[in-house]
Amino acid sequence: MSKRPFLTRADLADALCLALLFAVALAGFTTSYTGLPFLWTGLAGLGIGLFVAHLCNYWRWPVITVAALTVVAYFLFGGALVMRDQAIAGVVPDLDTAKALVRSSVDSWKQLLTTLPPVEASGPLLAIPYILGLVCGAGGFALARRVKVSAAPVIVPGVVLVAVALLGTSKPDWPEIQGGAFALVALIWTSVRARRRRRPLRDGARRATRAVTGAALVGLVGAVAVVAVPFLPGVAGHRTVLRDYVTPPFDIREYASPLVGFRKYTKNAKQLWDQELFTVTGLPEGSLVRIATLDDYSGTVWGAASGESAEPGTARQGFQRVGSRIPAVGDGRTATVRVTIGEAYASAVDVNAWLPTPGSPTAVRFTGVTAGTHSDSFRYNLSTTSGIVADRLKTGDTYTVETVVDTVEVPDDPQPYGRPGLPSSAYTFVAAKAGTWSGKESNLGTKLKAVAAYLKNNGAYSDGGPGETEYLPGHSVGRLTNFLNAQKPVGDDEQYASVFALIANQLGMPARVVLGARPGPDGVVKGENVQAWVEVHLTDGRWAQIMNTEFMPDRSKKPDRIPPQQYENTDASVVPPPNTVHPPSSLTDSSRVDPNVGRSPSVKGEDTWEIPGWLSTVLAWAGPPILLIALICTVIIGGKAIRRSRRRRNGAPAARVASGWQEVIDRARDLGTAVPAGLTRPEQATVLGSNALPVARAADATVFGPADPTDATAATYWKSVDDLRKKLGADVSRLRRLRAALSLRTLRSQT
C-alpha cells in the first residue's frame, strides 16, 4: 500500500485560507499597536500553530496532543518572538524567560486594556498576537482537516476577529473593509471545502457556469457587506470594547489635591514665590504649562476624577499607561518642549507626582538615570491632558514632550458639550449667588461673563498676608460659603477659580479647575508664575480656557479693613454638610505608613538552608529542557492511558472485547514485536506466544458467538487483557518497557 503524502493540495489550500483570515482579523490591532511588529509576531505564531496541527494530523495524534504541543511551542519559540531581551542570545529560552512568558500570558491582556493606545509593539504585549496566532493556527487547521462540516474551521479565525475587536479601540481603521474582506475569504474557503465532497460535473460548460455564478454571488455579498454595513442601525454608534469596562489599576485618590497648597506659591507665604520650580525650553512664548487638571469636587477639595463613574459603553477617563504615542486631542502648531525639574518642585509633596506638560502632549520621553522607573510609573489621562508619575519627580529630572499647542477661546454664544459631570449636590450652595450675579442675562455666554465681571469688579485679592490673616486658604464648602456671603469676595486664585467653576456648572456649563503656570521669558517657572484658571467644555468637544484675569481682580487690589464677620445674608443659600470623606493631605499620611518600615529583618537561624549558587545555575539552564521532555512524556503516556480507558468503556460489549485484543496487539508492537497486519486473532497470537492464544480465541468466541455478550463478559475479558499485557512486559528489560511506554508506533495508523 502506498504511503500517504505528507502534504496535499487540500492542506495547502486550508492553510492559505486560514492565514488570510487570521491576517485580516489581526489587522484590527493597527490602532492598538505602533508599527507592524505585532502582525509579524502573530503570523509567526500562526505558522508554528499550523505546523503543530499538521504534524498531529499526519500522524493522527489525538486533539489533546495538539493542545499539549501548542503549549510546548509557546515556550519554545516565545523567547525569540516575545522575550528576546531575556532569552539566551535572543533566541534560546531559559527559566527566567519561561517565567516571563507565563506572566505575559496572564498580565498582557490587562496591560493592553489599561494602556492608552497605541502601545509599543515590543516585549510582553507581543504575547497577545503570538498566542492568538498559535491558537488560530493549531485549532483552525486541526478543525479544518478533522471535521467534514465545510464552515466549521471558519469559527476559529472568527473568534480571533471578535477578540481583536474587543481588545482593540473604539475607532479602528477601515472596519468596513476588514469585515467585508473577512466575509469574502470565509465564503471562498467554505465553498472550496464544500466542493471537495461534491460529485464532479462532467459537463465543462455547466462546471464553468457554476464557477462564474459562485464567483458573482461571492463578489455581490462582499460588495453589499462593504457598502451597506456602515448604514445599518447602530453601526455608527460607539463600538463596544473591553477597555471601556476595565478600570485602570491606578487610584488617583491616593494623591492629594495640588490646589489645596496653592498659597505656598503666593508672595506673602514666603515659601516658593521666588523659588525655581522647573524650566522649559522650546515652548512658544506666552503658552501655558499644565500641572494638574481637577474635574471633581467632593465638597472638601477639587481633585482629579478616578474615572470609575463612566457610563457603560463610554470611554473611561482614568489615568492609564501610555505607549510611545499619545492621541492628540486638539489642533494647532506642534512643538518639542524640554522640561527640567527644580529642587523646589521636587520637594513639594503635593505636586511632585504631577508632570508639568504644555499643550496636548502626543509623546513623553524621560531621560537620565530615572528614565526607566518614570516611564514604568507614568500614567496619563487623555480627557484631562494631565499626567502623573507614581514614583514622583526628582531634582534634575528631565523629559521631552512632543505636543500640540492650541489655545481655545470661549465663543460669544458658547453651548455646553452636555450636562455637567459633577453631581448637582456639589454646587447647590452657589445657586443663589449664581442667579444674583448673572442678573437678567438670557444666554449662557452672557451669564458667565456677568458672573466673571462681578467677581473681578467687586472682589479683592488676598493671600493671607500681614493684616489679612482672617482670609484663610482652602476651598471647602465652608470656606467658599464665607467667600460668597461676605460683603465682597476676598481670596486668591484658589477661591476664585473654585467658585467660578462651580457657578459655571450650576448654570449648565461643564467646568473644571486647572493648576498651571505661564513661564517667564527665560522659560523659568517660579512660584509667582503659578496660577489657577477654569476650562469649560464646549459642544464641539474641546475645552476652552477662561483665565483668572477674567474672573479675579488684580493682585494689587486689596480688601478693605472691614471685619470679615459682617455677612450679607439676604440671599444666602442653605449650606449642606461637607463630605465626610477627606482626601489625604499627602502620601505620607499616617494611615498609609508601611508597618514594616523601621523594622529590622529577623536574624536567620543557624539551621537555615539556602540554595547554592551552582545549583541555581544548573536549574536555570537544565530546568526548561527537562520540563519540556517531562511534558512530552506525560502527553504520550497520558494519551495512551486515555485510549485504553476509552477502549475499555466505550461501545457495545462485543466492541469492547475486540478493542481489548487490539490493546494487546498495541502493547506487543510498542515492545518491539513485529505483528503483521491482516492476520486473524489466533494467527496474531502465535506470534506473541502461547499465553496469548486463549485470549485470542476468547475474543473470537465472544465477537462471533451466537449470543450477545454482556457488560460482565467484557469486564471479565479485559481482566485477562490486563494480565496478558503484564506478561508481555515481564520478560523484557526495564529500559525496553520505558521505551515502549514512550513509543509513538501505535499512535500512528497501521498499514
From TrEMBL:
Task: Enumerate the residue ranges of region (Disordered).
Answer: 552-604
Quote the protein name from its UniProt record. Answer: Transglutaminase superfamily protein
Q: Which residues form the Protein-glutamine gamma-glutamyltransferase TgpA N-terminal domain?
A: 20-406
SUPFAM superfamilies registered for this protein in UniProt: Cysteine proteinases
For this UniProt record, the keywords arranged alphabetically read as follows:
Membrane, Transmembrane, Transmembrane helix
Q: Boundaries of each Transglutaminase-like domain copy?
A: 438-544
Extent of the signal sequence: none
From the record, give the transmembrane residue ranges. 37-56, 63-83, 125-144, 151-168, 174-192, 212-232, 618-639
Give the matching Pfam families: TgpA_N, Transglut_core
